[in-house]
What does this fold into?
Amino acid sequence: MTSWTKPTDPQVDEAVRQLIDGGHYAYFFDGLKNPLWIEPLRARGFFTEPPGLIKDDEAGTVTLPKWPESGYLARMAPEAPDLVLSIINALPETENSRVQEDLVDALLRMPANKAASALPRVLEWTDSRYRFRLQDKLGELAVHLTRADSAGSALKLAKAILAIRGSRFAEGRSNHDEWEYGQFLEKYLPGLVGSEPLEAFGLVNNLLRDAIEVRKEGRDYSFIWRPAIERHEQNMGHSIEDHLIDAVVTTAQDILSADPDMIHAVLGDLRRHNLPLFLRLELFILRDFGRLAPSDTERRLRDRALFDNPALKHEYAGLLAAQYANLPSPTREQIAGWVLEGPDPSDWCAAVEKQQGAAPSEEDVRAYKSHWQRDRMAWFGEALPSEMAAQYEALVQEFGAPDHPDFASYSRGVTWGPNSPKTEEELRAMQPGELLAFMKDWEPASGWRNSDSRVGLGRAFEAVVTGDPARFAAHGAAFRELHPAYPGHLFSGLAKSKWSDRAWDWGPVFDLLEWVVLQEEETSAPTDDVLEHTWRTTKLEAVRLLDAALRNNGLEFDDRKRVWTVLEKLSSHPDPTAEDLTEWATTEPWTQSLNTVRGEAFHTIMQYSLWCHRNLGTEEQAKGFGSLPEVREVLDSHLNLERESAPAVRSVYGQFFPWLHLIDKEWAAANAATVFPKSVDLQVYWYAAWGSYILFVSPYDDVLSVLRDEYRFACERLDNLPEEWERRDLASRLAEHLMIYFWRGKLSDQPGRELLSKFWQTAPARTRGQAIRFLGNTLEDRSVELSAERLEQLQTLWADRISAQTEDKAEELSYFGSWFASGRFPAAWSLPKLRETIAQSRALKDREDVLGALPSTAPAEPLLTAQALRDLIDISKEPWAIDYKEDEIKQTLALLSTSGNEQAIELARECVDVLASRGYLSFRNALSGAASSSASRPGN
Amino acid sequence: LGLERKLSAEEQQVVRAWLRGLNPACEEIYLSICRVADADEFPGRARLIGHCIRELRIRLLAHFVGEQKDPVDYPAKLRAIAKRLELEGVITIDPAANAETPAETPITIGSDTATMIRELIGKSEAKTAKLVDQMAELLRRIRLESDGPESNLKTIAADFKTVTETQGIAHSPKTDAELIDKDFIARLAAFEGYLHNFATARRFVARLETLDDILDEANRPAS
It folds into this structure.
């Protein structure tokens, strides 16, 4: 051990007087190695006031400050254990688990006997809410204490750490709590078992009993939540109880492997707890160690109540298979006799009669008994007595192999997706006629799970159609004979097929489409299978097929009339009904429009219009809807709220407004106010049309002049942002639209400036910030050209936003980081703006990017760069902001140090001082030529 | 001969510049200390230095923490207590009063008076505690960043209070020969050391070198 120099009083005084700064204070205690300093430092008041938790209720954070003094004590503990111990015992209570960690570290570094004397102190820390690494340290300490002379310290600590009833779990358990608990048992229990095996076993049994009792289930349902005592795929949970069961088992196994004579002590401890779970544990232990306690094994196996208890099935069966051969002959015969005799069916018969209203038949009773015998015989496994073997084989032959007979119930998980009676390959191999006949005749079997269904067959068929549409398109007429599910799957399969290679004839398909849309929809209750097509959803697939065909130019223009016949019919389909005006329909009408027949029909009418527009000559195109009178009639008619009340349909007008404008500018201009109604009582329709427009449409210059009033109205609504807008991001999309128009110079005129001004006046800070960030992202994209005029406008905007008089400006301004980081503005202009921004916002998004941009401004503008860096460091109290950009900051500092600008160099030095004081000692030499030593010892 | 000084001439300049930045009067007071300490002969300099140290402490506190509010008027409070004690017959100020025999029932201090005494003691203690708190606040504001660990500040504040507690020296009836001893020199050195630490508090990296020297010395094994 090192022999140290005792410090003098002046030496200690001098040191203490240097520790005013938190960084120096930490640096000193982190670097002090001499234990002889403890006493004089203690005399001067150190080691008495550990820092507590710092709770920020507003931010919802808790900080655990480091205590450099406790770190020093931990390191000194091996050399001055008594002194450190006396300090630990004299400290006031602290909730700061970071301090507790250091103190436990100190105890770990001193002899176990000495550490044990601090046990009362340590027990105070076991309920700590903010444990982090403390849990592990306490575990290590518990194991360390097993070396102490005083018995029980280690287990006392372990008991406190693992206590189920303590305040730790009073407010429930998180997944992390449960995981941490399991980790603790796995890591530290073996160490405890090694020193005091039976006591440790008793502890985990007690904890398990507490855990079961705390569940307050009324009785022990462990066979449900823990079907097998051993680790098994049927055990789904990772609860504390599961971890404790594992711990009980492994502890028992470890004890008995090391000392088989302990068997009765082990069984005795399990029997202290009068719960079925402990009986299951006993049966399980006996399975592997039954030969150590043959009479106990025999007693348990010949207990008919255990044999019949469904909660014990798994462990009883396991024990029987493992130990049957070792049982005395009479016992073997007794158990075999129970099986051969079969069950008393009276309870079962009564239950069946109660459920079905009639007693089971003799055949049913025989089957019940046979199943029972087959399953019990399976319990024996390899040990099945030879006299039963033939009967077992016969039963398996007759009734099939037993299905996990040792479990009360066996979970197979969930099979996703409906099943088909034939695979795609099988369907593909069939001739179309054969396949259609199969679909016509095949009926799904009754059954509710895992059975083949019409949906399953339909989907397999759909995939076959997609791969080879021509084979089936020609047979459209034949589908009239089938369940409505199949035409739906045919349409869906065709819609998904490759349109570029289309080689199938529309004729039979149109025949089928026209027939389908005329079908009366069932009024009876829908089928049990909610996935199965009804006429409604088959019509939906019909319109989706047309939509796909129109979008992909997959139709001949000569078929225009036939297309319209179907669409016109579906445009008046009752789905969505007035009753469908639910919250969903009003908050997300655009989604509803895609899942209702009429809504989808309107999407397709828009596609139809564009398809016609594409196919018409220039002269006809110029007539707008004059060339598409059938469309205009439907559109006009459904703008009438007496005729059309579904917001879903109105949302389609909004979503296609630029294309309606493309087809017929006059119609669009004349109907804009109707499509987007502003009156208070029609807001649901305004929201439907505007929401789908703003969310799904890019801003087109042509449309701006038509929709300027609508944009203005939307901006006015930002003043009192509806919750729905917030949730659906409508406000940020509006901000994006406006910023795009701004970038394109479309808002430079007086009305445009007024519109922008309205936006900045009414939008909440977050939305304004999103607008700024959107422009910032565009600025950062160097592929986007920036004209001098636009640059000037952007500079004006930044300056205006800084000088704007709004209360919530800080958040908005924080988004300007990306503007600076883009490097698009002259540094001499942008650095002061950055500083003004930081001064007002005291926070900066994209701060890392800003720090990363400073090396590029430092050579030309050293002082401004240094000032900006200082400001940024000032608002970068979180460690990550510095960590991510450490290299760039060092690069900036190096550039500043050689700039020749004295003020900049002085500021750079201040930056280094601040960073070093926060613990970033690697910055100590960041200034070339700065007077500092090369080594940064403590903390490095 | 002048007194032994801790700070070099250059370091004294650093302190002066810092104090000047706070308030030119502070620099003057420090300059007084320097002149008086460095003079070959300056009668009563221990008392003068004691006064200056206290004065600088008051001014530093006033600058960084603010003027002390609600000062306790001890004489007035004590006079009020004495008056009550007299009324209760516990003490007598009148020499002509009959004090030949004590009263048959011993006179005890009334509860109101006891409360007044207790409150006065409490105020005195609070003032001391408050002073340490104020000094801790002074240190917190002087350091590079005001947030950060607090637990070190009270310990150092208590030391700073001890170092600057020079009332006894300032009002001592003793002569310089009796007052200027090893402790006095150490106190002056400590005070100047504090001033230099305050003046260079923002030079974190440079000050690390001082700490490195201290740690080198502290961590040196016994030879």
In short: Chain B has a mean pLDDT of 87. Residues 111-142 of chain B form the longest helix (32 residues).
